[in-house]
Specification:
Shape of chain A: elongated
Radius of gyration of chain A: 25 Å
Distance between the termini of chain A: 60 Å
Oligomer: homodimer
CATH architecture of the largest domain in chain A: 3-Layer(aba) Sandwich
Strand order of the largest sheet of chain A: 2-1-3-4-5-11
Number of domains of chain A: 3
Largest sheet of chain A: 6 strands, parallel
Largest interface: A-B, 55 and 55 residues
CATH topology of the largest domain in chain A: Rossmann fold
CATH superfamily of the largest domain in chain A: Response regulator
DNA sequence: CAAGTCAGGGTAATCGATTACCCACAGGGA
DNA sequence: TCCCTGTGGGTAATCGATTACCCTGACTTG
């Protein structure tokens, strides 16, 4: 059914070795023969079998990527940046979704290893529970973590400095006169959630702000809504500012505040984290901490290159400083 | 470096055939030996080489998927639904982004073919220009198109009935008293854009509405903004309703209207298409046409199964009826 | 002119897993 | 007892491309 290099070789009247060499350019071939091979390949519509090539070469020219859940727009944004970089160098990306489930994540990772990808880029689902699978995979292929990292794992990482990012948000609302400031984020099951939480605590302490107990559950719109409802339902005075652990939470908060006629920024300041594409389209447009995705993607592939070249190179953790983007949810002007 | 089935066989003191049979269960093996093999595999941390298996079996247990641009949240939503279905049956997904570029799309498709995926699910970038690559790929593997389809291509398709969807939106605004109704969408380079356009024209005609020339460019937030600006800049009376070709355009329109103090729905009604996750979080929450993504994913895999089983089965086009979700952008209540 | 070098061709080993094919042996039936 | 069948084991072919290795002939060089 499928056209193989044998067919091409026969059609061109040369050996398979010559056909292969002509097609891949791995060695010189007399121009005349090369042309015959090229013709044969074209007329037969030859398309090389990447599986066979990968088996022989032991490399696939492909990197695998696993994200916790593709439904959170922050991840497609990273994926997009990585894809673009890979595209430039003619490599492919195999993308997998872990559906926020460490069992699925593990299966995906092992599948990618079995598929002989040249490297793995992963945003781990959990700080504690993703470790095992990564440790196992690491014995076979280079791994670079992005955005989040697993605890106690000696693997490269690139992300933003979450503590600095949250501190920027806190300092910003403090400078606007906020004195009571609540943090709505995810349970510290991921490194991001952990670091943003400690970042928040450090920052409010340093700024001398009053902060009720943080509301922690998960990075979702729905949780943002429930948290906002809870704040409203408490009946006490609303905080001056709600610092959200990421943008989707902030979306939920904004939406629920709007529904209950809590005005942002007049009554409460709200900030997010990530600067996903829709942040500037929220009502009001969301002040948030921007993660420099292109920069992250570039660094990420650089780390991967280094590790592919030398699996024993010292592991690096690169924390890029994020920037605060001020919009109307804290009174900025659009 | 890597543990192979040879190592497992040696360690268990059996032949590779037995090891393979024990591990895959492809034939009976004496329980005692099976246990030895299982032990060996466990202690050596054997992970089968999917590349070698694929080469031998000619199947990969994997489907490939190509989407026009993963940045548009509608596509990750479809991907998510497909992934979930595949996960249920223990298959993998290789996802690629075509970056809205038919050259890249072509490369991705051929890569997937070369990688021997068992089937290909694609949302074609262009109605006219995606055809060639798909035609070529079709000779090697089963293809199912989702959401959009390529012209003159005999391939399965599953999507929503765009004409019906747009008609629902038009009828809805007409029932609310709108008499002047403008369509903001993408140039008819994709089947969706084409069908939504003709759907719009048919519907306004049938409803006897007045409609200025449609504003057509691309499915992006930015175009939504520019289109809204243009409507405002014209200086004439704004239309009663703006029907958008998809949700991201509607987001742009809403955002620009808000910036210019055009009230929605009081001054203008606005509708979208797709019902992406953020549609209900827009300000005001967006009335839109919901695409039943799970249903589409299910149908899509069903079609793929049929085609894998019988490559010569008659091609099917399944148009699912979408439902209108009424929210505040047309005066509905949340 | 002999020896050495090099370019370019072919043959066959190789990557790792699966499986077609063959063989030995046990058990059953005539 | 002899033949037949079924079970479970091993050996080696196989998937398709790449490439190690070998060989031939042309060209250089002393």
């Amino acid at each position: 059914m499928s056209v193989t290099i044998r067919d091409v070789a026969r059609h061109a009247g040369v050996s398979v070795a010559t056909a292969s060499r002509a097609l891949t350019g791995s060695r010189n071939v007399r121009p005349e023969l090369a042309a015959r091979v090229a013709d044969a390949a074209r007329t037969l519509c030859y398309n090389h079998n990447a599986v066979a090539r990968a088996l022989r070469r032991g490399r696939t020219n492909t990197v695998g990527m696993v994200v916790p859940e593709i439904g959170n727009p922050f991840f497609p944004a990273i994926v997009e940046a990585v894809e673009r970089r890979l595209e430039e160098r003619g490599m492919d990306l195999i993308l997998c979704d872990a559906q926020q489930d460490i069992a699925i994540e593990r299966r995906r990772v092992l599948t990618l290893v079995g598929r002989q990808v040249d490297g793995l880029i992963i945003v781990p689902v959990s700080a504690t529970d993703s470790r095992a699978a990564l440790l196992e995979a690491q014995r076979s292929i280079p791994i670079v973590q992005v955005d989040r990292f697993a605890d106690n794992l000696s693997a490269d990482w690139v992300g933003v400095d979450d503590e600095v990012g949250i501190a920027q948000a806190v300092d910003h609302v403090a400078s606007l006169g906020a004195t009571r400031c609540v943090f709505v984020s995810a349970k510290p099951k991921t490194s991001s959630a952990q670091q943003r939480l400690t970042g928040f605590e450090t920052a409010v302490h340093r700024a001398g702000l009053d902060s009720p107990a943080p509301l922690l559950d998960e990075f979702s719109v729905d949780w943002g809504r429930r948290a906002a409802l809870e704040l409203i339902a408490r009946g006490e005075r609303l905080p001056d500012a709600v610092i959200c652990g990421n943008d989707v939470i902030a979306f939920g908060v904004l939406s629920e505040f709007r529904r209950h006629h809590v005005r942002v920024p007049e009554d409460v300041l709200v900030t997010g984290f990530d600067d996903i594409r829709f942040a500037e389209l929220a009502d009001p447009p969301l002040t948030t901490v921007r993660q420099p995705r292109d920069r992250m993607a570039t660094e990420c592939l650089r780390l991967l290159d280094i590790r592919i070249a030398d699996p024993d190179a010292a592991t690096q953790r690169i924390a890029i400083s994020p920037t605060l983007v001020i919009r109307e949810s804290t009174g900025g002007h659009s």
